[in-house]
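Lab channel / #folding
Pinned by the channel admin:
"Please post every new chain as: sequence first, then the structure tokens as a reply. Keep commentary short and put observations after the output so the thread stays searchable."

First post following the new format, from NK:
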Amino acid sequence: QVQIVESGGGLVQPGGSLRLSCAASRNILSLSAMGWYRQAPGRQRELVADIFSGGNSNYADSVKGRFTISRDSAKSTVYLQMNSLKPEDTAVYYCYAQGLAGDYWGQGTQVTVSS
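Reply from TO:
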């Protein structure tokens, strides 16, 4: 079992930045992958970015060049640095962790981009 706790969401103006944090209850290097999905009202949940145990990362086309996923294994935490935010980035952002026994999800953190 892995507990996931997200933080860092909020309200930001277009063009602004936020950093989301995702803390896991176990060593993240023992997990196959961790990452972020988001879900906007009336839309399906979509992958934003993820990072794999070997260090490779993957991004949705819509966030490439604006978002950066990183990790601090000593803190068992994954970060999502979001720059140049757009109104269409508004969503609930969910962190996930992929372990041998399955996937684990956080409760989500709201990101609202609005003037």
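NK: Residues 38 and 93 are 4 Å apart (CA to CA).
TO: also worth noting, The chain has a mean pLDDT of 95.
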